[in-house]
Inverse folding.
């Protein structure tokens, strides 16, 4: 099979190669179901990274030059975005999603 010239498009009409189309659709749906958004709350990664090293909120606030309240807010925002209930779960899920 030759290469397409610039601007040429391959068009599958309804009924053409239904097995291929069905397989690609199934693959897309499976990948889409597992996909996670790349967005995360501002500052969340820094807070989660330090928390995952075992630092307490007070130490994180000093390292990042933030108030303790801001650190706790960012941590809570990250936990909400990740859909978890604990800081440990946040670290695990953030790592799974590639945030850390």
């Amino acid at each position: 099979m030759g290469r397409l010239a610039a601007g040429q498009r391959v068009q599958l009409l309804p009924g053409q190669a239904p097995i291929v189309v069905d397989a690609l659709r199934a693959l897309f749906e499976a990948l889409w179901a597992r996909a996670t958004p790349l967005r995360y709350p501002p500052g969340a990664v820094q807070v989660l990274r330090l928390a995952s090293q075992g630092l307490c909120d007070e130490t994180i606030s000093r390292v990042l030059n933030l108030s303790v309240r801001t650190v706790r807010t960012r941590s809570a925002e990250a936990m909400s975005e990740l859909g978890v209930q604990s800081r440990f779960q946040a670290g695990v899920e953030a790592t799974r999603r590639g945030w850390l």
Q: What stands out?
A: The two ends are 43 Å apart (CA to CA). The CA atoms of residues 59 and 65 lie 10 Å apart. The longest helix spans residues 18-34. The helical segments are 18-34, 44-52, 57-64, 68-82, 87-96.
